[in-house]
Each structure stands twice: as C-alpha cells, then as structure tokens.
Amino acid sequence: MMTLFGDPNIWLPWSFGALLGVSILIYVVLDGFDLGVGVLFPFANGAEKDTMVASIGPFWDANETWLVLAVGILLVAFPVAHGIILTSLYLPVAVLLIGLIMRGVAFEFRAKAPAPWKNTWNGVFYAGSLLSSLAQGFMLGMYIMGLTWTWGNVGFALLTAVFLTVGYSFIGATWLILKTEGALQKKAVDWAKGGIWGLILGIGAISVASPLVSPRIFEKWFSFPSMLYLAPLPILSGLLVAYLWWKLSTLPREDDSYAWSPFVAAMALFILAFLGLAYSFYPYVVPEQMTIYEAAAAPEALIIILVGACFVVPTILAYTALAYWVFRGKATALSYE
Q1: Phi, then psi, of 307 in degrees rounded to 5
Q2: N vs C: which end of the chain shows fewer Cβ within 10 Å?
Q3: Which pairs count as long-range contacts for 225-231, CB under 8 Å and 24+ apart, including other chains?
Q4: CA distances in angstroms from 17 to 23, 85, 105, listed in the order given
C-alpha cells in the first residue's frame, strides 16, 4: 500500500497539505460570510437584525466545523508546524476563541432572553463577530510576515485585520442580498458597494507584502516562466471586481433575478486570493522555515489518518450541503420554540 501511489513521503504530505488548504478555504468563505453578517449588525434596526440572524442561523455551526477540521489536520498531520504556528499566534488565537464563544452564546441568548436584554446580546453578537474577524486577519498578516513579532510586522497584521474584517462584511452583505428582500436587501447592496473597497485594498496589501518579505516568493512572482502560472489570478480578480461593481449597480431587481450573482462572484474572488497565497507559499507550511514534507508525521501514521479522513470529510461535506439545500431560499423567522 505504501508504494501504490509512489513515494509516500511525497504524496501523503502533499495530500494532507491540500486537504488542509481546502478546509481553510471553505471555512474562510462560509464562516466569513456569517461573521460578516455579524459585523454589519450596527447598521441594521431591530427587525433587520432578526432577519440577518435568521439568514445564517441554520448554517453557522456547520461552517465552523471546517475550522475544527483544519486545526485537527494541522495537529495530527503536521504536529511540529502546529506547535510553531499556534505558539507564535497564541494571543490572536485566544482572541478568536473568545469571539467565537461570544457569538455562540449570543445566538442562543438573544432569542430567549427577556426583551430588555435583547440589545445587550445583539451587542455581544456583534462584538464576538468583530473580534473573530479581526483575530483572523491579524493571524493572516503575521503568517505572511513569517510569524515574527516585530513592530513592523504587527503593524502590517493590524492592517490586514481591518481589511479582512471589511472583506468579511462584504461577502456577508452579498449573502444578505441573496437571502433577504425589501429594504434590508437594498441596504445590503449599499453595504456591499462599500465593503468591496476594503477587500480590494486587503488583497492589494497582501500582494505587495508577500514578495517583499521573501526573495523566494519574489522569484516565483516575477521570474519567467513561473510568472505565467500566477498571471491568470490577478487578471481574473480584476474582471470579477469589475463584474461585481457593475452587477451591484443593477440590484436589487423587482423580480429578484441575479440576487445570487454577487455572492457567487465574491466566493470566486476569495478563492482566487487564496490560490495566490497557496501558490506563493507552497511548499512551506511555516513560512520560509519548514515545508509540508519536513513537518509531516510519519507515513505510517498518515496512512491511518487518511483512512479516517476518507470517512470524516465526505460526512462533513454531506451535512453541509444538506443544510444549504434544506434552508435554501429567502430567510424566514428564526424560532427556537
């Protein structure tokens, strides 16, 4: 079995690296939009907040499963890298967990608490969403800068924290365009028009910083023929941004046609940005320090983990797809009774 697909020291780490990347990507896109909906809370009135929560209520638990899967893969498949990354990012990871806990508690309590306390729990939900988004953006910035804590790196990480949060609000707004109607849908279009600029600035900042902090990435981006592999990504991203701006200017429509298109285009834009990062940092799992092949567990252990993943990953995919299929269409009142 070890030689069925060639050298297990190559294809096993690559397979788990790819699975780790896909898990992170799915998490960023799916939990990104429901975090973004929470970040938009201050701009909505009471009834609109209820609809916004209803639009993500059936999905947020399933969305966060992908984060658990990604961390689990990092721990069991790349244990040394897990230790380095989580140790370097201990503080923002703690903030992330606090934010996610606040969101989970607020989800339940805002629906069940007496009316005078509802605004308080709305505030907790917003604060948890904001903390989680900022923490993820900060971790992204520190990862790009090589996980070293210097004033310059922290400043860049704070910048990416803001940009990713605005980017999440953008994809959250596109989700609301898809799932709501009436006045809230119109507001969501305006929110998306504003949020798209934060996403563009965030992608631009990361694109400038990545080749500057690593000669290896600079060589990948600007040497021939390597640059040809990367060239389609910025071109497609530019076309998607132009399409999004044009499409948002035509929405909402009375017949609600094409309400889905901004969300699909936003997902595609996130995917392209992620592919650019993956292309830039491969084969390193710890930037410029450790490759996936150096950090991987023993092939014998990875084979056992792979067998488990063959059952776990399709199960997560299945119930995630089922949730989105069952609760398709416009958001309705969210009730716990």
Answers
A1: -60, -45
A2: C
A3: 229/279, 230/276, 230/279
A4: 10, 15, 33
Structure-block tokens of residue 19:
């699975």
The token duo for 267 is: 């997902």
Helix, strand, coil shares of the chain as percentages rounded to 5?
80, 0, 20
Please name the amino acid found at residue 113: A
pTM here is 0.90
* Tens digits of pLDDT across the chain (337 residues): 444 457 788 889 999 999 999 999 999 988 889 999 999 999 988 788 888 988 888 888 788 888 889 999 999 999 999 999 989 999 999 999 999 999 988 888 887 777 778 888 889 999 999 999 999 999 998 998 888 898 888 988 898 899 899 999 999 999 999 999 888 999 999 999 988 887 788 888 888 887 877 788 888 888 877 778 888 888 998 899 999 999 998 888 888 888 899 999 999 999 998 998 888 888 899 988 899 999 998 888 899 989 988 898 999 899 888 888 988 888 776 665 5
Q: Is the separation of the CB atoms in 62 and 320 below 8 Å?
A: yes
Peptide bond into 42 cis (omega under 30): no
Q: Is the peptide bond before 114 cis (omega within 30 degrees of 0)?
A: no
Token representation of residue 88 = 């370097």
Asked if residues 76 and 297 have their Cβ atoms less than 8 Å apart, the reply is yes
Q: Which residues pair with 267 in a beta bridge?
A: none
CA distance 162 to 141: 10
Q: Which two tokens stand for residue 204?
A: 């631009």
**Neighbouring C-alpha atoms within 13 Å toward the C-beta of 152:** 5
Tokens 């992620």 belong to 274
Place of tokens 């803001």: 162
The residue whose two tokens read 């994809």 is 171
Sign of the torsion formed by the C-alpha atoms of 252, 255, 258 and 259: positive
The count of residues in the chain is 337
Burial class, 193, CB count within 10 angstroms (exposed 0-12 / middle 13-18 / buried 19+): middle
